Fold CopG family transcriptional regulator.
Amino acid sequence: MSDTSKRSTIYFDPQLHAALRLKAAHTHRSLSDIVNDAVRAALAEDQEDLAAFEERVSEPTMSYEALLDDLKAHGKL
């Protein structure tokens, strides 16, 4: 851990905690490293999702009702 790390208390489900401890021991990593990597991955995925939404903001939208009507009109329903 670096000097800039922050300490936090996290409450895990006991079975998840046991799995994390086993993974940490098996991979020779700390629980903190595993949790930090998981949080980074989740935040990166959020960033990718936001970028995808931004790229599609100008696409036309269709209501659910209009979608159903279109499916029915084309014999899909």
